[in-house]
Amino acid sequence: MPHFQPNRVLSEILRQNITGDAMEWLLEKSRADSTSFNTAFVMIPRKTGKRNISVTQQQQRDLAEYAPGLYVNDWLTDRLARVWLLLQLDSSDKERYIRQVENLFLTAEVNELVALYSALPLLAYPEAWAARCAEGIRSNIGDALQAIMCNNPYPAAYLSEPAWNQLVMKAFFTEKPVEKIIGLDKRANKELACILRDYAHERWAAYRTINPQIWRCVGKFTDEEFFPDIQKLAASGNALEREAAALACNDSSYMPAKELLDTNPELTSAIRSGMLTWDSLAIKMKEHVLQS
Amino acid sequence: MCCSHNITEKDLQPGAQDTSYLGRIKGMQFFDPHVHMTSRTTDDYEAMADAGVVALIEPAFWLGQPRTGIDTFRDYYSSLIGWERFRSSQFGIKHYCTIGLNSREANNEPLAEQVMEILPLFIYKEGVVGVGEIGFDDQTAAEEKYYRLQLELAKEAGLPVQIHTPHRDKKRGTTRSMDIALEHKLDPAMVIVDHNNEETVKEVLDRGFWAAFTIYPFTKMGNERMVDIVKQYGTERIMVNSAADWGISDPLAVPKTAALMKEQGISDDAIRMVTYQNAITAFGQSGQISEADFIAVKEIDQSQKFSGNTILRGGQQPRMDKDSIIIR
Q1: In A189-271, which ranges are E strands?
Q2: Is there a domain that residue B1 lies in?
Q3: Is there a contact between B124 and A43 if contact means CB atoms under 8 Å apart?
Q4: Phi-psi region for residue B237, left (φ > 0), alpha (ψ -120 to 50) or beta?
């Protein structure tokens, strides 16, 4: 992912969601020395409040062009303003720039962490933040984790495979909405499939439930080792698990998996027609959750 | 902080658990403006939430033994606005804190200097509702120096001050703490003087400061005495806290005191003032407390289920049955 300057769109969105006074204050602080800049970063909620923001469809499209997957509609004014302020930092001196951003991480409270991790895909020198991002995944603070994992295009673009696998595994483990992980399908890999399969076995051994989206990361690696699990899933009493099995078979080129899918013409046609996808399954899971 | 008390055979008997007092305060909400949750367990968080504690303030203090480096201070302050705040939210309790250099550790001057340098990084953080707990312990020159510097910091930031008053030579230490605050031109309405007792309360109230009372077994106030204080002085500028920490203390001190007040005929309105409202009014001068947040933090949806099992979307902790020998 190339570095980009989505400043124009973010400035526009910011301007329409905060007061003129707050915008003036932010503009002034964006040009201040580093101490004053850092204090402003901390004090932002005092100036902008914490309100829902409105984003036009055009702005949403413009942002998606800069950073596919970046979704700001559910941000509050303080988060938007903090990310915007970070984008104003002078990045001409690489070492100094990185040190200043790193220092903000070191003393950040929860909402600041959320803003900092949300800004990763927009910062300069994107490759420099991979270790920071991996460190963030070690956090147990729910909101910070979610800011890294969900609707954030940075991890898929820059994390090494082990760090990426840790992100996905931890997202399942901490019950995050995994369908919002950008690049979940694209960065699927055999090692991750093995990790998730072992996790599923652990959950089964403990009589605990498993998020069917786990099989989304397994399907295309189906072989004779994975296949018994898919068979077990296909015979589940839970309709969502049977659908996950069908989708996993559909992702696979392993012949017995193809044959297993053929035995269920109803699900096969739902997949063919586009009615049943991993994303539609995620939506159905949410509805199921609300009804039960 | 604890145990200068002569222990008798009676003190060593295990207490029978009687939680019937919870019925008397059902539906009441409490704000504990001084409790060190870092030192407490998840059982305590659950019990506090069940007893009606909706929000609390965790003052920065010393951890039972002195720190030896600046990084451990930084990490401690970070944990108050980070991990502990999150941990509390998992139980539906809104967590605020005060940030400061405590009096004991002010005596390590080289380290205290470094701490003073990083304090400005933390006091403007969201949910930091004051500078505290600061003041005197041994009443040394170093303690006075850093107390004064932090009063100036609070004044500059427009934040309330939470003053720890000493265990020894308490009465004079309390007077001196207030003298110095006034000397630095702090408005007494911005200063909460903590750990009061029958001997200190009159002067604190007469001089216009807030008087906080810590209900802490053996060494500070007992709650029967607290009831008498409220009967004598009323509710204006008086608040109750637990100061529960790593010593033998009680994180339910505020709701228990409310129950005792109720039992002894104090009005619901008066109880509300000293166990909830006054603390919010005093520390709310920071601009960092919003009662709407007490509700928002509870919007952790326990009703959402997948395949019969709860999905913890808000990240809150599931309840386990503590009376069962089965652990799942």
Answers
A1: none
A2: no
A3: yes
A4: left
Give the domain range for residue B200.
Answer: 27-310
Parse chain A into domains and list their residue ranges.
7-180, 190-291
Between positions 269 and 288 of A, the ones with CB within 8 A of B are: 285, 288
C-alpha to C-alpha distance for A70 and A155, rounded to whole angstroms = 12
Query: Is B5 buried (19+), middle (13-18) or exposed (0-12) by CB count in 10 A?
Result: exposed
Please write the tens of the pLDDT for every residue from B191-243.
999 999 999 999 999 999 999 999 999 888 999 999 999 999 999 999 999 99
CATH, residue B257: 3.20.20.140
Beta-bridge partner residues of B96:
B57
Q: Give the position of tokens 């559910």.
A: A74
CA distance B86 to chain A (A): 6
In whole angstroms, what is the distance from residue A82 CA to residue A112 CA?
Answer: 8
Using an 8 Å CB-CB cutoff, list chain A residues near B124: 39, 42-43
Q: How many domains does chain B have?
A: 1
In a domain, B321, yes or no: no
> Per the omega criterion (within 30 degrees of 0), is the bond before A65 cis?
no
Distance CA B145, CA B163 (A): 15
CA angle B300, B53, B31 (to 5 degrees): 120
| Mean pLDDT, 10 residues at a time, chain B of 328 residues | 58 71 94 98 95 97 92 96 93 97 95 95 95 95 97 97 94 97 98 96 98 93 95 97 96 97 97 98 97 81 40 57 77
Using the Cα atoms of residue B167, residue B173, residue B178 and residue B180 in order, give the sign of their dihedral. Answer: negative
Crossing angle of helices B70-81 and B109-123, in 10° steps, is 30
d(CA A190, CA B260): 63
Identify whether B305 is part of a domain: yes
ipTM, two decimals: 0.78
pTM for the model = 0.86
Residue B5 lies in a domain: no
Q: How many whole angstroms separate alpha carbon B146 and alpha carbon B124?
A: 19
